[in-house]
Amino acid sequence: MLWMAVMRVIKVLLVDDSPEFRKLLGRLLRGLGFEIAASVGSGEEALQFLASEHPDVVILDIAMPGLNGLETAQRIRARCADVKLLILSLHATPEYRQAAAAIGVDAYVCKSNLVPELPRVLAELSA
Predict the structure, then answer these.
(1) CA angle 30, 71, 40 (to 5 degrees)
(2) All structural domains of the chain with their residue ranges
(3) Taking the model in full, what pTM does it have?
(4) What is the CATH number of domain 11-113?
């Protein structure tokens, strides 16, 4: 008899103010076997979602109106210590990376390296 290992599906919350980018990213992640728990356009919406749901990973853009990604990450980390936080941003400066690390963000990927880096980083976060 063959036994098949059942892999747990990783639920991801996407937080980016660009609906087009969220749609593209959602397609990419679904293709990699991830489940999109929700796709929201602001930090405020992310916090509202997290009040009732608990995804495994939250992917955040930094530059968003209202609460930016770093502020949102800080609030999420205070509420949900076990959720994995990943910043996905156009900003590649060391200052942003250091600020994210100080908050407790688990990974930082530049959007310019999305396709090669994101699958590897998500596999590490969900291991």
Answers:
(1) 35
(2) 11-113
(3) 0.91
(4) 3.40.50.2300
